Amino acid sequence: MATDVADVVGADPPAATEGFSAGTTVGRSASRRTAGTIVSYVVLIALAVVVLVPVFYTVLQALSPPFAYINAHHPPHPVAVAWKQRSWWTGGPLSVVGRTVLVALALAWLQLRGGGGSVRTWRLLLVPRRLGAIVVGTLALGIATGPVFTSLAERNGQTTVWVLVAIVAVAATQAAGLWTRGSVAWRIGLLAVLGAVGLVGIAVVAAGADAWTRSWTNAHLGPAMGRSLLMTVLITVCQVVTSVLAAYAFAFLRFPLKRLVFAIVIATLLLPLEVTLAGNVALVRQLNWINSTQALVLPFAATALGTFLILQGFRGIPPEIQDATRLDGYGHVAFLWKFAVPLTRPVVAAFTVIAALGAWNQYLWPRSVIDSDTANTMQIQLRTLAGQDIGNANLTIAGALIAALPVVLLLVAFQKQIIRGLTAGAVK
Questions:
Q1: Which conformational region is residue 220 in: left (phi greater than 0), alpha (psi within -120 to 50 degrees), or beta?
Q2: In the CATH scheme, what is the homologous superfamily, with its name and number, of domain 218-422?
């Protein structure tokens, strides 16, 4: 009996020790997770700096005339910048509406992310407090930037004061929208200030500097961008449709010599544009398609790359799904658009972005089938601008940044789809 009691009494200390060890392990794992999170954020910030610093210097060179910048010994700030005497509401209606909508969208994104929401939870913006923050913040930015533009154009030395006033006004409106019961004050304040600093800085540089307007008007970038956008949309739609149909045929249909046909299709990826350039240009001239939209679009209406990428997505669909749809009476077309495409939406979206980027950045083919200045695309027009005036070479950089804006917006809009599409199948 004594032995049993001793055994029972002696059993407590190990239990306490085990609890202590477990607590220590939990504490260590929590500290490791915290350290890992800190390291991850440090690495991400470092990578962001590596990416954004070249962009900053590109904008700097776009604002500064080259000779003035060289004579100033390449300072880390713009020099001899020509600022416009304007307000936020001056300019063409399209320009005013466009910049105002962009500011409102930026403030809406700030309200969503600051409130812990996402694009899918956009209804959170209908809350009067947040909706008011977006509207009042947009008006505050438009009104407060007027004195900033005037100060920059007159160079009266009051620019810093007015910029600070604009930042405070925008930050106050956003903090009021982000504030909720139980919010951390310093976090809300920091987020509102950082958002206001970025928004005011971008708005002043984008709307106040004269380099963008001169580059846009001197090179007639407006019509060229319109033609490039039309060409990009048509090529992207054609490539997505033909790639989806071809991938479906190779994935779900049976026909003779399917493997041989697929090998021939993939083999076209080995032929660069330069190999078929002369023959395609001769064919376009025979069809009398020079300076036409069909000459820019039809040679790129189909691509083996899209067929291959979407085919890999279709192969990931379980055969049971197709069998079940057949029992329910679905044909090939219904199965394609109601099941196959929705199930592989990330892959299709990723290829859509790839196709759009490739079409937008084309130069060699448009240069080969266009011989009139009135039919130039954006890339050709930028090349023309580069050879006009060396003394104003910064306008070429400004034009290149304008041309990159649709690409940036496309990548921002489809960033989640791109990541999902490129990582599809990586995790089982």
A1: left
A2: MetI-like (1.10.3720.10)
Structural contact between residues 314 and 247, judged by C-beta atoms closer than 8 angstroms: yes
Nearest-angstrom CA–CA distance, 364 and 258: 34
Task: Specify burial of residue 187 (Cβ count, 10 A radius: 0-12, 13-18, 19+).
Answer: exposed
Mean pLDDT of 300-321: 90
pLDDT at 254 over 90: no
Residue 148 contacts residue 104 (beta carbons within 8 Å): no
Task: Using alpha carbons, select from 40, 380, 197 the residue that is nearest to residue 189.
Answer: 197
Question: What contacts 170, CB < 8 A, 6 or more positions away?
Answer: 137, 140, 141, 144, 195, 196, 199, 200
Tokens read off for 212: 């963008």
Q: What is the mean pLDDT of the chain?
A: 85
- CA–CA dist 87, 291 (Å, integer): 40
User: CB–CB of 118/101 below 8 Å?
Assistant: no
> What is the torsional sign of CA 243, 244, 245, 249?
positive
Widest Cα–Cα separation across the chain: 109
pLDDT at position 117 is 63
> Cα separations (Å) of 337 from 234, 248, 340, 341?
20, 11, 6, 6
CA distance 212 to 190: 31
- What is the mean predicted confidence (pLDDT) over 111-125? 74
Pairwise CA distance, residues 111 & 64, whole Å: 34
Structure-block tokens of residue 15: 């239990």
- What residues does each domain of the chain span? 13-81, 83-208, 218-422
Q: Which of the four pLDDT bands, split at 50, 70 and 90, describes residue 415?
A: confident
Full-model pTM = 0.81
**Amino acid found at 102:** L
Nearest CA to 29 out of 41, 37, 19 is that of 37
- Cβ count near 237 (within 10 Å): 15
Locate 231 and state its tokens: 């060409």
Q: Which amino acid is at 355?
A: A
